[in-house]
Structure formats: C-alpha cells, structure tokens
Amino acid sequence: MNQLTLAIIFYVFAALTVLSAAFVVFSKNIIYSAFSLLFTFFGVAALYVFLSADFIAVTQVVVYVGGILVLLLFGVMFTNTIMQAELKTDVLHVVPGTLLLILMIAGMLYTFYTTGDWMPGEAQLQGSVVQRIGFETMSHFMLPFEMASIVLLVALLGAAFLARFDKAHKNEH
Amino acid sequence: MSQSPSLNTWSDALSGFHLGWFPLGLVIVAAIPLVFIALYALTYGVYGERKISAFMQDRLGPMEVGKWGILQTLADILKLLQKEDIVPTAADKFLFVIGPLVMFVGSFLAFAVLPFGPAFIGADLNVGLFYAIGIVALEVVGILASGWGSNNKWALYGAVRSVAQIVSYEIPASMALLCGAMMSGTLSMQQFSVLQSGPYGFAHFYLFNNPIAWLPFIIYFIASLAETNRAPFDIPEAESELVAGFFTEYTGMKFAMFFLAEYGSMFMVSAVISIVFLGGWNSPLPNIGGFALNDLTNGPVWGAFWIIMKGFFFIFVQMWLRWTLPRLRVDQLMYLCWKVLTPFAFVAFVLTAIWEIYK
Fold first, then answer.
1. pLDDT of B280-334, one tens digit each?
2. Contacts of A5 in chain B (CB under 8 A)
3. Is the Cβ–Cβ distance between A6 and B109 less than 8 Å?
4. Tally of domains in chain A
C-alpha cells in the first residue's frame, strides 16, 4: 500500500473518531450518544492498528464495544423515561473551563514535545506480539497481573452475590 | 512445512495490484469473501436449509421452480426486491435503518482473517483468532440498534435475549478456543492450519492429536450454536413467543440483510471450529504407503475446497440439530451456559495446559 492511500485511510479514521466523539458530547438524545460511541471506539481501534498495536486494537473492540458499550446500551434501554430525560448541554463556567482547557492542551503538548521520538521508527516488529505480551505479563508484570485477577474475582463474587435469588428474603413475604 | 513458502501468495499478489493510486487489489481481496457469502447463502444457505429440513421431516421441500426447485431462491430474491421497504412511523428511523447494516458488517468483518486455502487470506493477523472472536461485538450492537429502533416490544425483547445469550456464551466459546490456541501456541489463522498439516492427514488435526481436545471441541460447537442464534438456542427469534424477535418489523432487503448476516456468522463459526480443531484447509486424507493421497489433495485450490467443505459440514450439523431438538427456555439457556459449559471449559483449559506441559 502506498503512502497516499495510508494517509487517506488514516485521516478517514481520525475524522470518524473525532466527529463521533463530538456527537457523543453534543447530542441531545442519550441513545444516539451511546450508539455514536460505537464509532468512536472503532476509530480508536483503527488508530491502534496504525501504530502496529493489533493486539491492543482487538482488545479495545472486545472490552469497549463488547463489554462497556453493550452494558451502557442495556442500562439506557431499560430505563423507561430515558427519552424524556433533560440533557444539559449548555455552556457553563466559561472562564474556568477555558483556563482548564488551555492548561490541559499545554500539558499534553509539553509532554508530546519533551517525551522521546513520537514518529514510528524504521524498526519493524519481529514475530508475534501476543507471545511477547504473554512473556512480559508472566515475568516482569506478574504482580500487577495477579492483583488485577484478584480485583476481578472480587468483582465477580460481588456481582453474583447481588444478583442471587434471596431465599430468606423471599420467605418473609 | 512444505506449504510455508507459498503461504498467502494469491492474496499478496492481489493486494499489490494498483490502478493508479487506487488500491484496486485490496478492494478485490475484500470483495471475494462478500461474493462468497452471497453465493453460499443463496445456494446452500436458503435452498439447502429448506431441502435439508424437508428431508428431515420426510417432505419434498421446494419442487415447483425449476427442476427439484433449484431456482426457488431466485424467485425468493425477486420477491424480496419487490417488497415495499416499510419503516414504521413510530420507529427510530436512523437506528432502524442502521441496525441491519451494522449487524451484517459485524458478521462480514470476521471474514477478514478467514483463510480460504493456503494461498488466500484477507489479512494474516498474528491475533487472527482473537479478532474473529472479538469482532462479534459489532453484531451485538447491530442487534440492539434494530431491536430498540423498531419500537416494538417483541423486537426489544428479542434483542435483549439475543444479546444476553451472545455475551454469556462468548465466555465458554473463548475458553474452548483458548485450549486450541494453547495446543498451537499461536493465534494466527494460517499458522493454525500450517501446524496441523502432515503426511497422515486427519491424524495431525488437534482433535485427534490430544486426548482432551474433544471437550473444548464440543463446548465450542454448542456455544457457537448459541452465538449464531441457531436452534436449540433460537429463543431470540422464538416464533411462538416473539413473532420473529429483533427483526419483527423488517421487510424486503433489510430483512434479507439479517439473513445474510446470520448465514455469514454460521459459516464463520463453522470455519473457526474447523481451523482450530480440524486442520483448516488441510486435506483429511492420509498418504497410504506409496500412494500420496494427502500430497495430491493439498494445494491452493484443494485448500479452498477443504475449508469450504468442512464449513459446510458443520452448517449441515447445525441445520440437522435445528430440526431435531426442541428450543430451550431462557433459564435453561443461562443454566447451560454458566453452570455446565463454563465450568467444563475451565476443566478443559486446565487439562489441556497439563497435557501441553507434560506430553
């Protein structure tokens, strides 16, 4: 694939990400906001592919589209009065907001220009990325990995406890 | 591996083809699975399913249009094209229209990593299998969009049932495929097939190569039935309770789009199970002494033949089960997923790990 085609595809995905993210924020309809998030997540996944991070890209789709977005849509759809809910999208606190915005952009630009070389290098990734991620999780990052698994286990137990059919409570009625 | 040097030659040659700056070859590579889905859904999908169901029930099936009713599907397409494209006034117009499109795209995107033989694959990702499981998420959002957009109680219930089912069954399905990934040590769909090739044909397939492989194989097959909303897990479109589930309100080509998406994902899960456990595009025939049957029946064209035939075999089993088993209740469905398939998938995972370490 030549450079021009790559550039066109990149800008299409970048525009998709930014525009759909803007739609999420500015839309008055919460259902449309939720569905617009789908395109934002996909655009971000595509940008990961441009960084040669295919594993992260697929994980992005699995976790955000398959997990978080579906959960969000379920929550939105099961709320009866969701279409009547008043969404606040008017502008408040102009001066502090602008200040915060400028500070954040300045901070990001500072990090961008001071932290290393952001352009992709010539060195191509060799072999399977998944394999390397596996080795790293099982060696250098063993402790955070195990801690995350304990956190997830506790969350699972909590969810199962909350959702459980309560026999004692049922008998009282 | 004798095939390794010639891996992906056709798709690589095609993708290098440019028309000016326009990468026409890449578009053709993407169009081939699309044409395949359309052709197979028309012939084997619709006509085949009607004929097979007829034979299961000792009927003749479609017999009027053409000899043995071969042209019945063409007549059906003409009918679908002529149907009025109704959008209910109370429906959410945008979501109603975009729902079937998102669902079909979700089903079609998975074909990017499906190797049609050793010489052709859309994209030989090193996370191919993970991608094929993960991209189903898009289909889920399409189902929710069409179910909510129809503004119909049946459609919404169908969509919610379907999504709950797909999301739950993803867990045993992924665990079962993870067993396959442990046997091969890769997630690339092409490498899966390359690692299962050898002179003795089927004896190199993971299903026959490992004493535990049948357990994840069966778990994935059951879970894949649920993921594609096929009987006995077709409660999202249970005719007797929900009319037609999430596509109750759809007519004409939008309705046909749901069918294409369903047939697309049916072939995809069948192809995934054949790639992970049954050698993908490898010939199952062994070399018998001096008669090199395996070498004769391997190659780019034979590869395409084998992968499609293996896929069609599993689709046949899916159709067979549809006309054999009664539908499960919602609570039975969840019981089967969380209390039967998931624990057994974990057992299979541990046993496969032990086998892989100590074999």
1. 888 777 777 777 777 777 777 888 888 888 888 998 898 888 888 888 888 888 8
2. 21-23
3. no
4. 2
Is residue B165 within 8 Å of residue B331, measured between CB atoms? no
Structure tokens at B244: 């037609």
Is A94 part of a structural domain of the chain? no
Is residue B116 within 8 Å of residue B31, measured between CB atoms?
no
Q: How far is B302 from B193, CA to CA, in rounded Å?
A: 14
pLDDT tens-place string over residues B89-104: 877 788 888 888 888 8
Burial bucket for residue B209 (CB in 10 Å: 0-12, 13-18, 19+)? middle
Cα separation, B286 vs B302, in Å, equals: 14
Question: How far apart are the C-alpha atoms of B28 and B183, rounded to whole Å?
Answer: 34
Question: Chain A interface residues facing chain B, Cβ-Cβ under 8 Å?
Answer: 1-2, 4-5, 31-32, 35, 38, 42, 54-55, 58-59, 61-62, 65-66, 69-70, 73-74, 77, 128-131
Please give the structure tokens belonging to residue A163. Answer: 């959702």
**Structural domain includes residue A15:** yes
Same domain, A66 and A134: no
B127 CB neighbour count, 10 Å cutoff:
23
Which chain A residue is nearest to residue B174, measuring alpha carbons? Answer: A62
Whether A9 is in a domain gets the answer yes
ipTM of the prediction: 0.76
Show the domain range for A24: 1-89
